[in-house]
Amino acid sequence: MDLFPVFKELAQKTPSKILLIVLDGVGGLPLEPGGPTELEAAKTPNLDRLAEESALGLLTPVYPGLAPGSGPGHLALFGYDPFRYVVGRGALSALGLGADFREGDVALRGNFATLAEGKVVDRRAGRPSTEENQRVIAKLKEAIPRIEDVEVHFYTESEHRFLVILRGEGLEDRVTDTDPQKTGLPPLKAQALDEASEKTARIVNLLSERIQEVLEDEPRMNGALFRGASKRPSFPRMGEVYGLTPAAIASYPMYKGLASLVGMEVLPVEGEGDALEGKLKALRENWGRYDFFYFHVKKTDAMGEDGNFWGKVEKIERFDALLPEILSLGPDVLAITGDHSTPALLKAHSWHPVPLLLKAPYLRADEARRFTEREAQRGSLGHLRGVELMPLLLAHAGKLLKYGA
User: Fold this and answer.
1) Whether 74 and 118 share a structural domain
2) Distance, CA of 46 to CA of 38 (rounded, Å)
3) CA–CA separation, 390 vs 386, rounded Å?
4) For residue 284, what are the contacts with CB-CB under 8 A and spacing of at least 6?
5) pTM greater than 0.90
6) Is 404 among the domain residues?
7) How many structural domains is the chain composed of?
8) What does the pLDDT look like over 190-246, one tens digit per residue?
9) 138 shares a domain with 42
10) Could you tell me if 164 and 203 are in contact, meaning their C-beta atoms sit under 8 angstroms apart?
11) CATH number for the domain that contains residue 386
12) Nearest 5°: phi and psi at 168?
């Protein structure tokens, strides 16, 4: 059910400020039965102190049993039904990069990968530096300006990630991914899901072959895996739906694209990678200009996908060290959660619920004492779905009028 007409009617402008912090992929699993999750293993005195004066619960980002991508996971947190508002990863990267992305274009998110004997050895090519990515993208731009009658435009995203925009007549975006999602398997062939997308599937497959030819002398970045083929979507904007003046603080293009898609102003962030200090600076310098902030932390997810349990613990602890500076700004409503779980044990997104912490003036007593999966089960917020978070934040911020007579 689309509740946006209800929110438009009930939303009211107030000076209160909402801060939504998304620790990407924060949910985890123990490495062995009875052991701690990454959150439980981390030393987080500031999160612990905050949990004692907050309400906690569990949140299923999209739907029980579904391991969501970051797109639907985030859209749900912003209050957008992820089954109605669907967008491909390619479009998100294009929007986040500010690429020349036109009506009729098809965008694809690419991963540089290491291939050997026709099979994927490393889906992320050893996580090369962004500078290495730029060097290889320059080679591809020169060697592959078009496939048949279709223009091919390459963009560096970061590390192993890149973007391709296809421009030409007769392109549609109903094609399958070429990423097998596992090592030891060959790249998949793009398949058209309808007749109108057959040309796009053919172009993607030819492009994959041509990239391998051009990069055959590269030791690690010698192939490409594509996913999220998509045209440019149009979604309702948060300002119209909720009456907010929202801003986004994120480093990676995909998350900036998500924020842009729903009408947030994407603030510039200094620094490379996750750039937590740069994000904190952006938050501090723009605190007076907006009433809703989305603050994204990426590396918790990256460590989980790499299977690096203790690396993920370290990223959680690094965020915890910066938390007092964030709290010093005095948000009226603060939520900390994740867009999905990425247990290091699984090296992938999973279907497990994530913990949710809510700090607001009008909360009931709570037994939870740490920001962990186990403690969140004891919290007063219960178990929510992702789309239920945004109305809760608006209500605690005094931004929703009474519904009905």
Assistant:
1) no
2) 16
3) 8
4) 325, 329
5) no
6) no
7) 2
8) 999 999 999 999 999 999 999 999 999 999 999 999 999 999 888 999 999 999 999
9) no
10) no
11) 3.40.720.10
12) 170, 180
